[in-house]
Amino acid sequence: MTEVNITIEDLANLVPGQATKVIQISGQLDESNVDEKIQQVYKTVEENPKNLNLIFDLENLEYMNSKSIGYLTDLYGKITEAGGKVVIAKARPNILDILQVVGLTQLIQAFDNLEAAKSAISTPAKASA
Amino acid sequence: MENTEVNKNIDPEKTRITITLPTNAYFMSGIRDFTLNMVKNTTSFEEKWAFRFQSVIDELCNNAIEYGSAPGSDIRITFVYAKDDFLEISVEDTGTGKNRINATQLQKLFSDRKAPGYVFTGIRGRGLVKIVGEWSDELKFEDRPSGGMKVTVKKFLKDSRQNTSGISKEKQILLNV
Questions:
Q1: What CATH number did the domain enclosing B49 receive?
Q2: Could you report the per-residue pLDDT of B20-32, keeping only the tens digit for each?
Q3: B45-77: string of b/e by CB count within 10 Å (b at 16+)?
Q4: Domain count for chain A
Q5: pTM
Q6: Residue in B26, B48, B126 closest to A66 by CB
Q7: What is the pLDDT of residues A64-95, one digit of tens each?
């Protein structure tokens, strides 16, 4: 199995009344490991069924395949439907390139630093006219 | 990885490398590393293309593992680099996979998913159209006479080569059955 590590850190009080987690993924997400490793993230979603915010810190992610992107898309759908937000931070150029080619950056905002990602999470969504 | 063969003797302007590996996703990180280094060190493609070809190979091999070759059989990858012209990559399976499909079926699947308005709803299915399709100039699906399928992608180094040779700038998708 290719090496990949997922750690989940709680960002207490970033948004009052809402849980915010930073998901750090390092290594390579591929066919040999993604089905098993992504379950950690799904478990967090199950434990926080409403208003969960996720920041994916991809600074040390070297590779992701199309199935990993499928899981990210699925997680985005589940979380936003339940009133939460999902953003990406610090992705390497090759990761941003693949996220762009599959169109995921049209759904999920990507930031080059964690502070900007946190700010996007804590800023209330604009009310539509 | 079972076998790697490099042949530069036939045409000095072309490098051909063939790798045969068992049907197991475990080996793909090694293939990705090889692809990245090979493209960076032996071709004139920009670095971003080394990463893109890494993804193209990975997606093609994952498809071959899922649909083409049963565990215990092989997948064969062939790289052909024509100096300052193109890189061509072929992935061949044995047609022994539990979920095997033929070239016509794969072509249809590709065309359906490429159609405007198609929405990807599942976890799987983006790789062939969104990665392999977008990052290649030509894509060819062929049934192999001995069984199985061969998928070939080709990327030209310069877009201008396509214009001067009369090939349409639109992507060429060929189907040989």
A1: 3.30.565.10
A2: 999 999 999 999 9
A3: beeebbbbbbbbbbbbbbbbbbbbbeeeebbbb
A4: 1
A5: 0.89
A6: B126
A7: 999 999 999 999 999 999 999 999 999 999 99
Here the CATH number for the domain that contains residue A48 is 3.30.750.24
Chain A and chain B share a number of CB contacts under 8 A equal to 67
Q: Which domain holds residue B103?
A: 3-176
> What element of type H or E holds B161?
helix B159-164
For chain A, say whether B134 makes contact (Cβ under 8 Å): yes
Q: Nearest to residue A30, comparing CAs of B71, B82, B24? A: B24
Residue A129 within a domain? no
Residues of A in contact with B48 (CB under 8 A): 93-94, 97
Query: Is the complex ipTM higher than 0.85?
Result: yes
pLDDT in tens, A27-44: 999 999 999 999 999 999
The interface residues of chain A toward chain B in range 84-123, judged by CB-CB distance below 8 A, are 93-94, 97-98, 101-103
Q: What is the residue range of A32's domain?
A: 4-122
In-domain check, residue A53:
yes
B39 contact A CB<8A:
no
| B58 lies within 8 A of chain A by CB | yes
CB B31 within 8 A of CB B1: yes
